[in-house]
Specification:
Keywords: Cell membrane, Membrane, Transmembrane, Transmembrane helix. It is a multi-pass membrane protein. It is found in: Cell membrane. The protein has 2 domains: about 5-55 and about 280-420, no CATH class; about 115-235, no CATH class. The protein has helices at about 5-15, 20-55, 95-100, 165, 170-175, 215-225, 250-265, 270-315, 315-325, 330-370, 385-410, 415-420, and strands at about 60-65, 90-95, 105-110, 115-120, 125-130, 130-135, 140-145, 155-160, 180-185, 190-205, 215, 240, 240-245, 265-270. β9 and β10 form a beta hairpin. The protein is elongated, with a radius of gyration of 32 Å. By secondary structure, the chain is an alpha+beta fold.
Length: about 425
């Protein structure tokens, strides 16, 4: 008897008792549906978090601040020392950045500029409080347009989406290539200067850095120059934070060692993943608990498979005895019943995955117009082919293992006793 014949026989035998088989498949469906949907939510949320991480520097960036004056919660405040400058406390100087650049596994160090803009104004002449940050090496997730250019001398902005309607634009597309006015003041004299910049892109809504607008280097330099105009020299070129770009492909141990080195020198260093790691842990914990419920449903379904096939063996005892009397081996009998279990697992997992995908589309459509409205680019439920295939394989493996008990009983039946069975 060929494998194809065994599969055909298993498929036809499966539907001898349709009610029993359908109920077993439904039990598998519930488990597959729950696991697939929660996995989809996990993928969707983590994908969005990854986009936000890329938008604030990615995995190879450290955000560094001075530890001076912060002390240690367990040791109390740091004691004052005469050899420490108190002119500008808790600031990072150019000398500090040069020292960081010389450290092992550091590619470059850039200041995190404190850019102060009084307001932004566009075609409706209304003025709004405005903030922005440097483009740096960020991978900007945009709703419309292109990222700001690091090479041009023109002043460019990737504007946050919250400003589109307020500034009088009908849509993100309508805002592209439009001029806006930025009012920037000197911190020393409060003298105000108006700068014109061009909107070249509109950001998607961001959860990580509050959706700050992004300035290109030329505009960033101009704003910083105006802010520091007429400041004392001791207050210039001092920064609250700096960003360290690490070398590519560093191991976790190497990143930890660099953090420890910075800590020994009086700096507090964190990756973006450190800052949002708690969010990711909470999401993974929630979806993990929901996946566990799906696993419990699959465990219950596996007992349904055992029961279904045990009853099938009992119903077909004489048939099994006849097949064995005609020369069918124990392994072929075992394989035939195992194939029935695999088919139950296959149909249950396929229907469960398809049901989860359909529900995912519905949830995404509802979320986009309700509780996730405004978070452009956030698909709450996403599916990947590897995860779908893995779920199906695991479920079919569980079904196969559940089916081995009745399949083994069928294979070990004595043909004479089986033929006498009433």
């Amino acid at each position: 008897m060929k494998i194809t014949d065994i599969l055909k026989s298993a498929s036809s035998n499966l539907w001898r008792n349709k009610g029993r088989t359908i109920l077993t498949i439904v039990a598998i469906f519930i488990g597959a549906f729950t696991i697939s949907l929660t996995t989809g939510v996990n993928i969707g949320v983590n994908d969005y978090i990854d986009k936000q991480v890329n938008g604030v520097g990615g995995e190879n960036m450290l955000i560094v601040q001075s530890n001076s004056g912060m002390g240690n919660p367990t040791d109390g405040p740091e004691e004052y020392s005469e050899d420490k400058s108190s002119a500008v406390p808790d600031m990072i100087t150019k000398k500090d950045m040069e020292d960081m650049t010389s450290m092992k596994n550091v590619e470059k160090v850039e200041p995190f500029l404190q850019l102060n803009v009084d307001y932004i104004q566009a075609k409706n002449d209304k003025k709004y409080v405005f903030s922005g940050s440097s483009a740096g090496d960020l991978t900007i997730d945009l709703e419309e347009g292109r990222p700001v250019s690091n090479k041009t001398e023109d002043y460019e902005i990737n504007i946050a989406p919250d400003y589109i309607k307020s500034l009088g634009f009908s849509s993100a597309k309508d805002a592209l290539n439009k001029k806006v006015k930025l009012a920037v003041s000197s911190q020393a004299t409060q003298e105000q200067t108006i700068i014109e910049a061009t909107i070249v892109g509109v950001r998607t809504q961001s959860l990580v850095n509050n959706g700050d607008s992004i300035f290109n280097p030329a505009l960033e330099e101009k704003i910083s120059e105006i802010n520091q105009n007429n400041l004392p020299d001791t207050m210039k070129n001092n920064y609250y934070a700096a960003t360290i770009t690490m070398k590519d492909d560093l191991s976790e141990a190497q990143v930890t060692k660099l953090k420890d080195t910075l800590s020994d020198k009086g700096y507090m260093a964190m990756t973006v993943e450190d800052q949002i790691g708690m969010i990711r842990q909470v999401i993974n914990a929630i979806t993990g608990v929901l996946t566990m419920f799906g696993a419990i449903a699959l465990l219950a379904a596996s007992f349904g498979i055992i029961n279904t096939l045990y009853m099938s063996v009992q119903d077909r005892t004489r048939e099994i005895g006849l097949m064995k009397a005609m020369g069918m081996s124990n392994s072929k009998i075992f394989l035939m019943f195992s194939a029935e279990a695999l088919l139950i697992g296959f149909w249950g997992s396929v229907l469960g995955v398809l049901g989860a995908m359909g529900t995912g589309i519905l949830v995404n459509n509802i979320a986009a117009t309700s509780f996730l409205e405004g978070l452009t680019g956030f698909s709450l439920v996403q599916f990947s082919l590897p995860s779908i295939l893995m779920i199906m394989v695991i479920i079919m493996l569980i079904a196969f293992l559940a089916g081995t008990f009745p399949a083994n009983r069928a294979a070990r039946l004595d043909p004479i006793d089986a033929l006498r069975y009433e």
